[in-house]
Structures are given as C-alpha cells and as structure tokens.
Amino acid sequence: MVTYRGAQGYLPDTLDLLSLETAARGCRGCDLFKAAEQTVFGAGPADARLMLVGEQPGNDEDLEGEPFVGPAGRLLDKALAAAGVERDTVYVTNAVKHFRFDRAAGGKRRIHKKPSGGQITACRPWLVAELDVVRPDVVVCLGVTAARALVEKNFKLTVHRGEVLQLDEEFRGTLDPKVVATIHPSAALRAHVDRDAAFDSLVRDLHRAAGLL
User: What is the pLDDT of residues 56-76, one digit of tens each?
Assistant: First the structure.
C-alpha cells in the first residue's frame, strides 16, 4: 500500500468553508491532483443540518469544479425532491476531493476508478474540517466508500443500511451527528434489474434521514 503525505499540512489556520475550499485547491496530499483537472470541494450552506457525503467527484464534477453536477447529481436532486428535502439546504461533499480515473482503451473517455484506502485516508482531514465547520445534525453516507471513510473501514451496506450509526471516534470530538448509509446515486443509475426500485430505496433512506432532523 502506498503511503501518502496526507492533507493535514495543507489545512488553513482559519477554519471556514471559504478558507478550506481555497486551501484545498493547492492540496498535494496524495497523487490524485496530478491527473485531475481540479479539486472539487463541498458545497452548500455552512449551517446545513443535513450533510451528504459521496465517494469522489466524477468526470463532470472534475470539469465543472462542483460536487454532484453530473448524471448521479441530477438523480440525487430528483431523489431529494421526492424525499421532501430542498437541495439548497443541504451540504454535499465527497470523501475524496479529486477524480480518480482510467482512460478507456484507445480513447479519451475517462472511466471512474475507486479511490484507494491510502487516498481516502490522505484526504480525510478535509472531511474532518468540513464536519467541524458545518456541524450537521445528520450525515448521510452515499455508498460504501463514504461509510468506510466516516464510520468504519469494514462497513457493509447490506448489514447496516437502515440503522442509525455514529461517526468513527476520529471525527467525533464534540460532534456526534446521527449517521445513516444508503446507496450512491450512481448505483441506481447502474442498476440493471430494477432501476426504479433502486431509486425508490434511495428516496426512502433520504426521507428517513430527513426525519431524524
């Protein structure tokens, strides 16, 4: 396993969302910055009561510099609306702030590649700082990678989906929001058997999370 320097040394002295986003643009805590177009930091109100955490930015997010603006983001918007949650009241971010990808054979298309455990660990200080600033009442982990970054490294969605969980001790301190885990919106997009059922399950989990506020 590759050992990375990590993001800790890039954190600003002043912890607010603008300072964090500005500092994160220069992060070299792991190697993902080399191929990605830019850092994609979180977005949303600093006093959001609900925080959604995904895995990493995708192709569209990397090009536009905003989280959840591609196909998965549009499906997330639809799911939030169906769950009765206004998107502009929610803080959305990712466990990893740079896009990791492979090139399609013989082409320019960039194909999502799951970040490594070392890259997730290297990026964790940004996520800790976001939690410290926003201090949400409820955190939703969108997918297994987010849950393993926030709750426990061996997290299994099939076991813990539907439960009210706690953050890993590293994140808590004086912060102890309720945590729930659900599928990533991209999983609903990729569902081959019943995409509608996958989407409906995402809506139910988001509605349950909103009900914890």
Answer: 999 999 999 999 999 999 999
Chain position carrying tokens 């177009």: 37
Could you give the CA distance from residue 193 to residue 80 in angstroms, rounded to a whole number?
A: 23
Write down the architecture of domain 13-210 according to CATH: 3-Layer(aba) Sandwich (3.40)
Q: Evaluate whether 206 touches 90 at the Cβ level (below 8 Å).
A: no
Please give the DSSP secondary-structure letter assigned to residue 34. Answer: G
DSSP annotation of 67: S
Give the closest residue to 128 by CA, choosing from 167, 74, 80, 98: 167
Pairwise CA distance, residues 14 & 18, whole Å: 10
Q: How far apart are CA 43 and CA 55, in angstroms?
A: 15
Q: With contact defined as beta carbons under 8 Å apart, do 138 and 209 qualify?
A: yes
